[in-house]
């Protein structure tokens, strides 16, 4: 049976005989010739762009090497930033202004080391060479490790526990550290400022003169807005010296902590602990009978409740100074850590966008920290005044007791 070639393209016939239509199309001679040419050229096309496996392996190795170098570089930068942060927030036995990481040189000045180890030992912190050398004093050897002094041998051997903390004996350390030196400077600064203010008062008939004129409104504010409202006009005068000392002492130390000198005195929990203990002692040693009566046997409260509340009130004696200590320490320490971390981000990003944002954030946080330095001094002072006021509060329950 013969078919016309055109019938293969007829729609009805293709629908009824699809296989026959495809065979007729593929049996076309020119189409077979083109397919044969393509099959013959496939090897040529393949060999025209050969894949060099050695080159690919070399390039992939270079990529991996670059990635490893970038990771190592970032890890090294992060380690250096962490070291700078620790140097800034921790106390030190020498006053280092800055150092050169490439040469290992440090620029600053040493501080005196005072140790008690079967007698006093006096020597300069320069003997430690920033923790790299062993210091010898009267036949004893000492090693500086993370700003703590340990007794060791001539080789500087330190025995570490499973937490990587040295187990060597520690002598009593009375050294003049960086924080102690700053406290001395602030104490002398306050003495000269306020002694000159007092002399100008006496000399000019109650009118301030000199640099003390700047601090006179602050002194009056502490007296009129903090001491008198919280303590009372009858008792506030005997606490004014402590309130003024605490306020300006904390404020000046906080301002020193914002300088690039690496001073963080109020971010040291030992300092805030000492301030809190002084407040605790003054409060309890100057308290009246009414204060102790409200702690151990509260008036106007049923007897069973007095037994329950007395231990809680007694715990409050310790909780109050503990809150003073932690509040000042945590706020100042966290502020320094955040600021140093933002500055460190500039060295991690290494581009205009990231570094610029880090710089702007660091600048804004620095401005906020100036306000926080004043605010923390104010909060510590007003809470101290509240504790003093509760200690000398007069008894107002006479009429209730009669009823």
Structure description:
The chain is mainly α and 403 residues long. It is built from 12 helices and 8 strands. The strands form 3 sheets. It has a 3-stranded antiparallel β-sheet with strand order 4-3-8, with no helix packed on it. Strands 5-6-7 form a 3-stranded antiparallel β-sheet, with no helix packed on it. Helix 4 packs across helix 10, helix 5 packs across helix 7 and helix 7 runs antiparallel to helix 11. The longest helix has 47 residues. The radius of gyration is 39 Å and the shape is globular. The N and C termini lie far apart (132 Å). The N terminus and C terminus are likely disordered.
Summary tags:
403 residues, globular, three-stranded antiparallel sheet, 12 helices, mainly alpha
Please outline the helices and strands.
Elements: H1 11-16, H2 18-26, H3 29-48, H4 53-89, E1 94-99, E2 106-110, E3 112-116, E4 120-124, E5 134-137, E6 140-145, E7 148-152, E8 172-173, H5 178-203, H6 216-231, H7 237-257, H8 269-285, H9 289-296, H10 303-349, H11 352-391, H12 398-402
Helix pairs in contact: 4-10, 5-7, 6-7, 6-11, 7-11, 8-10, 8-11, 10-11
């Amino acid at each position: 049976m013969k078919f016309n070639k055109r019938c293969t393209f007829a729609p009805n016939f293709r629908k009824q005989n699809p296989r026959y239509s495809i065979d007729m199309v593929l049996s076309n001679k020119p189409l077979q010739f083109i397919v044969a040419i393509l099959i013959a050229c496939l090897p040529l096309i393949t060999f025209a762009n050969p894949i060099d496996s050695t080159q690919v392996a070399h390039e992939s190795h270079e990529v991996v090497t670059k990635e490893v170098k970038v990771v190592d570089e970032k890890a090294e930068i992060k380690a250096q930033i962490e070291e700078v942060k620790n140097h800034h927030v921790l106390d030190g036995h020498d006053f280092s202004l800055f150092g050169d990481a490439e040469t290992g040189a440090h620029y600053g000045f040493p501080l005196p080391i005072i140790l008690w180890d079967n007698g006093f030992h006096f020597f300069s912190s320069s003997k430690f060479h920033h923790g790299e050398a062993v210091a010898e004093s009267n036949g004893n050897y000492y090693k500086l490790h993370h700003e703590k002094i340990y007794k060791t041998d001539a080789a500087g051997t330190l025995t570490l526990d499973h937490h990587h903390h040295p187990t060597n004996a520690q002598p009593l350390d009375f050294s003049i550290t960086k924080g102690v030196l700053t406290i001395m400077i602030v104490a002398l600064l306050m003495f000269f400022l306020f002694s000159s203010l007092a002399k100008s008062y006496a000399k000019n008939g109650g009118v301030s003169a000199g640099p003390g004129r700047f601090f006179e409104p602050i002194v009056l504010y502490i007296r009129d807005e903090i001491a008198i409202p919280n303590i009372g006009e009858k008792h506030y005068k005997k606490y004014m010296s402590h309130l003024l000392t605490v306020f300006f002492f904390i404020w000046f130390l906080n301002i020193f902590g914002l300088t690039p000198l690496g001073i963080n005195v109020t971010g040291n929990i030992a300092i805030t602990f000492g301030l809190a203990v002084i407040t605790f002692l003054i409060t309890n040693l100057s308290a009246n009978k009414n204060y102790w009566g409200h702690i151990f046997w509260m008036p106007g409260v049923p007897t069973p409740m007095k037994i329950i509340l007395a231990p809680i009130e007694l715990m409050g004696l310790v909780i109050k100074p503990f809150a003073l200590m932690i509040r000042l320490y945590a706020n100042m320490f966290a502020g320094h850590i955040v600021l140093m971390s933002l500055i460190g981000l500039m060295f991690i990003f290494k581009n205009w966008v990231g570094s610029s944002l880090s710089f702007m954030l660091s600048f804004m946080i620095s401005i906020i920290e100036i306000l926080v330095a004043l605010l923390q001094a104010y909060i510590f002072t007003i809470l101290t005044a509240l504790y003093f006021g509760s200690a000398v509060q007069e008894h107002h329950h006479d009429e209730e007791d009669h009823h």
